[in-house]
Amino acid sequence: MEIQSLENLRATDKLSLTFNPYELGSRMASEEAAEFQQRQIADCDLTEGVAAGTHDSFERLRTVFAYGVLCYDVYTLVGDQALLIYEQALRDRFMEWCAGSITFHVPQSPDASFPVVSYDDVQGQAARMARRRAKLAVGTSAVEFNGTLHGLRRWARAADLLRGRRSRMVEDALAKLRNHVAHPAGHHVGSPVEAAQSVRDLAELINQLWGQTTSGGRLYPAPLHREIAVLSWNDAGRVRMEHAGALALPDPTEEHEGDGYQHVVVRAVPFIPGSRWNDDHWAEFDTRYETTRFPTQYLWGPGTREEARAWLELEHPEGDSVDFTDRVFLIRNHGRLLPPMRAAVAAGLPDDERVGTWHAVRADFPDDAFAHVRGAEDRRAGHVRTPGDCPACSAEVLGSGSYDEALRATTAVLGPIQAVRLPSVRLPSSIFWPDCR
Ligand SMILES: [Zn+2]
User: Between the CA of residue 404 and those of 328, 411, 423, what are the distances in Å?
Assistant: First the structure.
């Protein structure tokens, strides 16, 4: 190989300078690029309590990332290394979880427990147990576990250390990439954008494994804050969403349009310009169906602005926070597919609205659940029809059949369901969900 001078080693890599927040093709100054790239991963700190080995590997990765401005190949190495630390984190967390002993359910034999001091011990026992078709005991359930990344992922889900339906698909993709890195089939080059994303995803995964969600996270987001909001609409089809506090002020449109608006008070994720957590479907709100992207809770209405103001002054409802991942939706097919419903609303339906075929599906978003059920109508699309994770999308099937069967499958995962009967209120402009009746 060619020996480089220290001066050359210290020089910035021109390729690294082309990645910047400005227009394509422009280059940043070296100083600026060094700072810009480090800022991309500066805020993804690990929570306290993360195992020392995982913690040190992650911090080393963040340190090395900064050197990408001097050598572009560093970004490929960082991306690859992040995938290997993904497995290390699962192993370290497993060792903490098992606290020195693992137990297997062995077919036609008593349970077998083994002391373990290192992950090598775990792998050795798991491989032997897998040959006997034994399953690893995880709380009240049991999973196939042979000590590989595949088994570790099953264990982490069974132990409720990882959550979310969309994140499960990302975990699938990460596992495939990890196998590619461990057994490379060809040359690949990663960009600083991809490397930074890998580091950020890894930080989210490690923090989630050690019980910490990520505020604004892509994979394991923290619960979202909901505020008290007023949704209103008029006969001309105009809709608006206001913070409840706005009702104390004079209505700017009142003079021009009269008070021809109907109002409902809800708890909803507030609309913040530029936020990735805006609910693009807030104007689809319907008390019967989960037609908004994030959970929107009906509180009062419909009524006039004056009545809404009076109710707010009397009740003083407050905001809350809501976890939108792993929600359970019930979808009814009665001649046509109706939008997803919350279990509590489905449980309160009158008899004549229970007919048809029902699907109980777990998903992060109502449109994910709906897309799965619609997709499963075509057998060639590869969506699963029996209970379990769908290989073709992020949904998990809980059960389907009659109304009672679907509700039983729902109760099995949610526990007893408290039925609610809400007044039927629906904003007029449902474009995304046209078939609501
Ligand atoms: Zn599916």
Answer: 15, 10, 23
d(CA 390, ligand 1 centre) in Å: 5
Please give all residues whose CB falls under 5 A of ion ligand 1, grouped by chain where several chains appear. 372, 383, 390, 392-393, 395
Is the pLDDT at 254 greater than 60? The verdict is: no
Quote the ligand 1 centre to 290 CA distance (angstroms).
18
Q: Which residue blocks in 316-402 are alpha helix, DSSP H? A: 343-347, 366-375
Residue 114, token pair as written in the block? 């083994």
Domain extent listing, the chain: 6-94+161-209, 99-147, 224-322, 327-414
Rg (CA), the chain: 26
Cα of 367 from ligand 1 centre, angstroms:
11
Cα 381 to middle of ligand 1, angstroms? 8
Q: What separation in Å is there between the alpha carbon of 408 and the centre of ligand 1?
A: 21
Report how far ligand 1's centroid is from the alpha carbon of 377 (Å): 10
Rounded distance between C-alpha atoms, residue 268 and residue 311, angstroms: 17
| Least confident residue range of 116-130, 212-226, 272-286, 325-339 | 272-286
Tokens 């910035």 locate to 12
Tens digit of pLDDT for each residue in 270-320?
888 778 888 888 989 999 999 999 999 999 999 999 999 999 999 999 999
CA dist 126 to 110, 427, 431, Å?
16, 55, 52
